[in-house]
Amino acid sequence: MHDHRDQAPKQIRNNKAGLLQRLTELLPGDALLHEAEDLRPYECDGLSAYRKLPMLVALPSTIEQVQAILRLCHELQVPVVARGAGTGLSGGALPHEQGVLLSLAKFNRILELNPQRRTARVQPGVRNLAISQAADPHGLYYAPDPSSQIACTIGGNVAENSGGVHCLKYGLTVHNIQSLKLVTIDGELLQIGGAGLDAPGYDLLALMTGSEGMLGVIVEITVKLLAKPQRAQVLLAAFNNVVKAGAAVGDIISAGIIPAGLEMMDRLAIRAAEDFVHAGYPLDAEAILLCELDGTNEEVSEHILKVREILNQAGATEVRTAKDEAERLTFWKGRKAAFPAVGRLAPDYYCMDGTIPRKRLPEVLAATTELSKQYKLPVANVFHAGDGNLHPLILYDANQPGELERTEEFGGKILELCVEVGGTITGEHGVGMEKINQMCVQFNSLELTQFHAVKAAFDPLGLLNPGKAVPTLHRCAEFGAMHVHHGELPFPELERF
Amino acid sequence: MSEQDQDNRAALLGQVERAKATGTPLCIRGGGSKDFYGRQPVGELLDVSQHQGIVNYEPTELVITARAGTPLRVIDQALTAENQMLPFEPPHFGETATLGGTIACNLSGPRRPYAGAARDFVLGSQVLNGKAEILHFGGEVMKNVAGYDVSRLMCGALGTLGVLLEVSLKVLPRLEHEVSLTFELGLEEALENLHTWGQRPYPITATCYDGDQLRVRLGGEEQAVRAAHKRIGGDALAEGAVFWGKLREQQHGFFGSSKPLWRISLASDAAPLDLEGKWLYEWGGAQRWLASESEPTIIREAMAKAGGHATLFRNGDRTQVFQPLPEGLLAIHRRLKTAFDPQGLFNPGRMYEGL
Ligand SMILES: Cc1cc2nc3c(=O)[nH]c(=O)nc-3n(C[C@H](O)[C@H](O)[C@H](O)COP(=O)(O)OP(=O)(O)OC[C@H]3O[C@@H](n4cnc5c(N)ncnc54)[C@H](O)[C@@H]3O)c2cc1C
Question: Which residues on B lie below 8 Å from A443 (Cβ)?
C-alpha cells in the first residue's frame, strides 16, 4: 500500500532558506516567522507533553495568500500543519519540523450575521464565544460550547468536530454548520455545502468536520444560529455513590427528557473545582450531577419538577435548583473550570476523552480506579454524562523520570477499555498525535487502509498534517495491538486472510 | 426478533466478490421504494432486503442499530413501542422502504429543519466496499471523532460508495404534545411569518405553505405548545397528523401532478423564484417543490443564481437529476468514488454520469 505519511519530504528537506525566500515573495514580512524565539509559542498545542519547533510559521490574512502558500508547499513537497488557537488536546496542531505551520490567527473577522437566516459567516480564526456574543443582540447564539470557548477558534472546532456541555440536546459542530470554504493542498478553493440545508453530491461537509486538518485548510465557515431559549435552569444533585449518579442519568432520559446539559464530576474533581472557584459544591459527595433544562418558561418549570423527582428517586442525597441566573452560572463555572482546577492538584495532568455506552459506566469507572492503583497515579473524573463522554484526568509530574510514559500507558489502557465496551477512543478531542496507537485498537487494517484512501483523494502526497489522525499499518504492527470490536474479533466467519 | 431476521452478509459479500472478479456493475436495492430517485438504476441486482433485523436497541442509550434491509416500518414500530422516534421523520414512499435505502438517499421529512436530517442522526455504519471488504465506521455512541466520518459520507451517496449493511442511529423521545395550526395567507406574508417565528424560541416542528394556507406544527411539552399557540395564533388544523403524514409521503394533492417534480433547496429567506409552475414551500422556506414543464437548463441556471440547487425528484427525463457540480468538486467526488469502489461496481451513474 502507498503510504507517504511518515516519509520525509524530498527536495526541500532542510532547505529552510530556499523556502523562506519563496514565501517572502507571497507574504508581507510580518506574516512570516522563522527565528527560533518567534517559533517557540507554536511548539505545542494544549497537549504540552509533545513539543516540536516548525521550520517556519506563516500567518496569512487572505484566502489568496493561503492558496499561494499551499500551492508552493505542494510544489516543493513541504508539509503543512494548520493551527487555530492551539487549544487542541490531542497534539493535532503539533508542528512538523520540516514543515510550515499555517496559523489562521489573522482570519478573525465575522463576515456576515444574518438573523433572518439564522446564520453567521465567519473566518476560521474567530473564537467560538465571539460568535455567540455577536449573535446575542439578535436573540440568537451558536450552540456548541466547548469549555475552551473563550479561546478556541471555530476553524479548530470544525477540524475537531468539537462538542460542549450542551451537545446532548444541540449536537456537535457537525450539526451546527452549514457550509465551508476549503483550500486544497494544490491551492484550489472549494465551496462545500450551500445556502440551503443541503447540497448536491457527497456529504463533504460531514467528511471535513473532524478531519483534523488532514484534508484541506478551512478558510471560511457558515454556522447555524439558534434562538436563545427563553429560560435555562440548572439542578445540582449530590450522590454518595458514582454508580447511582450514573443510573440517574439513564432515568432522566428514560422519562423522555433531553436536558440541555447533563454533566457529572467525581469526588476528586468536585474538590478541585470547589477549591478553585468556590461554586458551593457539596464536598462530602462521591459524585454530583449538573442537569440543565432549557426551553420556554412553562416547559422548564414542568421539567424541573420531573427531574427533581427522578433524582430523588435515584437516591440523590441532595438536590438543589440554582436560585437565580448568578447561581446557575456559578454551578457551571465549577464544571467549566474543572480542567484547570484539577491541574492545580499536580504539576501536570493528562486529559483522556473516551466515550462509552452509558450503561457500561460502572465497570469502566471500577476498572479506571483499579488501574489508578496499579499505576500509582490519581485520576479525577469529569464526564459529559448525558452522552457517555468521559474525561478522566490523570495527575502526574512530568519532571519525575518515567512518569509521563506511565501516564500515557495508563491513559492508553483506559481508551482500550472504552473500545472493548463498545465505545470509542475519542469523543471530541480528536486523535491527533496522542491517540494514534489506540486507532490500531479501534480499527482494523482494512478500515485504516480505507481512511488512507480517503486522505489520498484530497492529498495524495500526504503533505497536510503528516503522521496524525490515522496510523500507518506499519506503526500498528509495531504497536502490536490487537484490533477489538465490541470485545470480539470482527466476523471470524468472514475473515479471509 | 422477528421471523424475517437474517444475517445475509455472507451472500452479499459473495456476490460482490464475484462482481469484482468479473467487473459486473451492481444495482443495490433495498425495498425498491426509491427506484424512482436518482438517475436510472443499472446493473445486476444486489438485493439487500433479505438482510434484516434490529441488532440492538437500547432506549435509554437513545440508539438503535439495524441491518440495512430492515423495513422502516419495523423500526418505527419498535421505536413507537418505547415512545421514541426517528427525529428526521423519513418519508417511506412505499410499504417496502428499508433503513438502508432511507440513509443512502438521506431523505428527511417535515421535521428536518427543526431536528436535523437523516445524516445528523447517523452514529455508525457497517459498509461493504467495492473491494469486497466489510468495514465498520463510527459506532453506537453519541460522540465519536476517531477516524473520518465515513458513516455520514454514506448518507445521500445513493450507494455509489458502498453497500450499507448496518446502520446505528440516534433516536429521541416522541414529543409529548403536538398541535397543528393553519393560517390563510398570501405568499409574502406567509414567508415573513416563518422568518419571524424562526428567530424566536417557539417549538415549531413543521411548516408548509401551499399558495393559500400556511400550516405550522408545534410540538413538545404541553404547556410550551399551548403558550406558543397563543402567541402565534392561527386556527387549529383538524387531523394534523394525517396532513403531515400525507405531505411527507407526497400524497398531498400538490404531488398528484404528472409534470416533472423539482425539489429546490436554497436559503430559507431566498426571494420567490420566477419560474413557471406550481409551488409548495416546506422547511421554513428552505425546501420548495416545483411542478413545472420548464426546461431543466432554465431551472438549473436560476438555482445557480439563487445559490441553491435543484433535484429532478420525479417524472421527466432522468439523464440529469442532480444539480451539476463545479469541476473542482466533481474531481474530488471521482477520487472518493475510486477510494471506495475502485472498479466502479456500485450503482454506476445513479448520482452523476461517470460516478
Ligand atoms: C481547558 C480546555 C477545555 C476544553 N474543552 C473542550 C470541550 O469541552 N469540548 C471539546 O470538544 N474540546 C475541548 N477542548 C479541546 C479544544 O479546545 C478543541 O479541540 C478546539 O476545537 C480546538 O480549537 P483550536 O482553535 O485551538 O484548534 P487547534 O488546537 O489550533 O487545532 C486543532 C486541530 O485543527 C486543525 N485546524 C485548526 N484550524 C484549522 C483550519 N482552519 N483548517 C483546517 N484545520 C485546522 C489543526 O491542524 C489541528 O489538527 C478543550 C481544551 C482545553 C485546553
Answer: 136, 146-147
Rounded distance, CA A95 to CA A90, Å? 13
Single-letter amino acid code for the residue at A252? I
Does the beta carbon of A89 lie inside 6 Å of ligand 1?
yes
pLDDT for residue A483: 60
Q: In this structure, what C-alpha cell is assigned to residue A295? A: 426551553
- A148 contacts A81 by C-beta, under 8 angstroms: no
> Residue with C-alpha cell 468521559?
A390
Which set of grid coordinates corresponds to residue A369?
Answer: 480506579
> How far apart are the C-alpha atoms of A481 and A354, rounded to whole Å?
18
Which of A172, A442, A458 lies nearest to residue B143, judging by beta carbons?
A: A172
A42 to chain B nearest CA, in Å? 24
In angstroms, the CA B175 to CA A214 distance is 40
Tell me whether A187 touches chain B (CB under 8 Å): no
Pick the closest to residue A66 from A19, A26, A123 (CA basis): A26
pLDDT at A431: 97
pLDDT digits (tens, 9 = 90+) for B31-52: 999 999 999 999 999 999 999 9
ipTM for this prediction: 0.97
Task: Tell me the pairing of strands B213-220 and B204-209.
Answer: antiparallel
DSSP per residue, B119-136: GGGEEEEEEE-TTS-EEE
pTM, 2 dp: 0.95
| Bridge partners for A177 per DSSP | A223
Q: What is the pLDDT of residue A18?
A: 93
Q: Please, what sign has the CA dihedral across residues A158, A164, A167, A168?
A: positive
What residues are paired with A217 via a beta bridge?
Answer: A183
pLDDT means per 10 residues, chain A with 497 residues, are 45 77 96 97 94 97 98 97 97 97 98 96 98 97 95 98 93 98 98 96 98 98 95 96 92 93 96 95 96 92 96 97 94 92 92 93 92 96 93 94 94 94 96 95 96 98 97 89 50 36
Q: In what order do the strands lie in the sheet with A231-239?
A: A318-321, A231-239, A287-295, A261-266, A379-384, A389-396, A348-351
Q: Give me Rg for the CA atoms of chain B.
A: 21
Q: Which stretches does DSSP call E strand in A215-357?
A: 217-224, 226-227, 231-239, 261-266, 287-295, 318-321, 348-351
